[in-house]
Structure formats: C-alpha cells, structure tokens
Amino acid sequence: MPSKKILCLFDVDGTLTKPRNKIEPHFEEFIYKKIKPCCLIGIVGGSDMKKIAEQMNGYEVIKKFDYVFAENGLVYFKNGVEVARVSIQKHMGEQKLQKFINYCLGYLAKVYLPVKRGTFIEFRNGMLNISPIGRSCSQSERDDFERYDKVNHVRKDMIEALRKEFPDIGLTYSIGGQISFDVFPDGWDKTYCLQHLEGEGFEEIHFFGDKTDIGGNDHEIFHDSRTIGHKVVDPDDTKMQLIDLLAI
Ligand SMILES: [Mg+2]
C-alpha cells in the first residue's frame, strides 16, 4: 500500500465502464474494496451527473468516490456534497450564446444526410453537444452516420464553418463519440477539474483515461504536468494497471 497521499482519478466511459455501458459489478467491487483503502479516488467525466450516475449504478457514486467531477469539473462533489457549479450561459452571456445557437440551427437546416432525426443541439451545463443526425437516432442509424461521417466529414466541415463565423468567440470544438461534437469555452476540458485539487495536498494524481490521443477528451489532462497519465484500452486494462501501480 503506498505511503504517499495519492489520488486515482478516472475517466468514466471506456475506462471504468465499457462505452455507454454500466460499470460491471466485479469491477465496481474491486474499486471500492481494493482501491479505496489504498488511496483517494475520483471521477472526471465529460457527461452530466445524470449520465455518470446511470453508468456508475446511481447517485450513491458521489458518496462512494471522494471526488466526482461531472462535466469535466464544472459540477463538483466532494465527499457527497456539491461544492461548485458553473454554467456556459453564465460564462458566455445569453446574447453571444444565442447568436451561436442560431447559427448552428441555420447550418444544420442546410445539411443533407442519408437519415436525419431529432435533438440536434443538446444544451448541457458546461457545453453544447451538436449532432447533425440528431441524438434521438437508433443504434444502427448511429453506426451508419459514423461510417458516413468518416467519408464525408460532416462534423469536421461544420466545425470549420463555425471557426470561420466566430473567430474570436473563445470556444473549443471536440469531436467525440459517433454522432456529435462538443462545444465549450476554451480551457473547459478535463484539466478544468485540477484547480479544485490544487489545495488538497496530493503528492501524486494518477489519471486513467482511454481517449488520450489528440482530439480525445482525455488528451489535455493526460498530458498535464499536474497528473501522471495512464492510457487504458478498457476497464480490464484499467484494473491491470491499478494492480501494477498500487502493488495489490
Ligand atoms: Mg472515455
């Protein structure tokens, strides 16, 4: 068991759970029974708290983990208590935000795709999630769009158009998953949560994530000098690397 004050900080999707799945019971038990006695544990997910709770078997997760950072840390729980909450509308102001949303709606109205469904812009606390096909599509439509987008660059082209239209708006674009991309203020990636950990006295912060390559949502925090990054391929790999790291 390490004698240092260590935090193991985990991405959720693809790291603690298989993509868009719930955490498996044996892995959950491993985290709470084997890892938690060795060090402090935290989660930093890009999704909102509702989705994190779904994947982690309920809102109890905010009590079971020492730190839970939803939406990259814009929503922050410590020991089961909400500490901070920031929103994109507070940060940007309604006027600027609405100008951006209106342009997106206009752009999407002119995109022709093999199939188009609904929920094209999902407004989250700290980001907009924009999906040209619409988030209410089925799994097979989702798979088809991903293949179509690889050839036709629908998402990439839209991001280029947004950059051109709003050169100084201070927003970052990130293509993730199969059907959408995220838009959030510059710096609001997963490194955002690290400011909350600065006064907590950790000697080492180990971050585990699956999307650590350029463009992936774990890239910035994986490379941040305040963390020791661990790239994983799936929950089984996370488990193996934890056993190695903590010598358990
Ligand atoms: Mg992930």
From TrEMBL:
The keyword Isomerase appears for this protein: yes
Annotated pathway: Nucleotide-sugar biosynthesis; GDP-alpha-D-mannose biosynthesis; alpha-D-mannose 1-phosphate from D-fructose 6-phosphate: step 2/2
Keyword vocabulary terms for this entry: Cytoplasm, Isomerase, Magnesium, Metal-binding
Major site of localization recorded for this protein: cytoplasm
Top-level taxon in the UniProt lineage: Eukaryota
Entry EC no(s): 5.4.2.8
Key word Secreted present: no
Catalytic activity: alpha-D-mannose 1-phosphate = D-mannose 6-phosphate
Cell compartment(s), UniProt: Cytoplasm
Pfam assignment, any one: PMM
Gene3D superfamilies: 3.30.1240.20, HAD superfamily/HAD-like
Primary role: Involved in the synthesis of the GDP-mannose and dolichol-phosphate-mannose required for a number of critical mannosyl transfer reactions.
Subunit comment: Homodimer.
Family note: Belongs to the eukaryotic PMM family.
Name of the protein described by the UniProt record: Phosphomannomutase
Recorded name of the encoding gene: LOC108561272
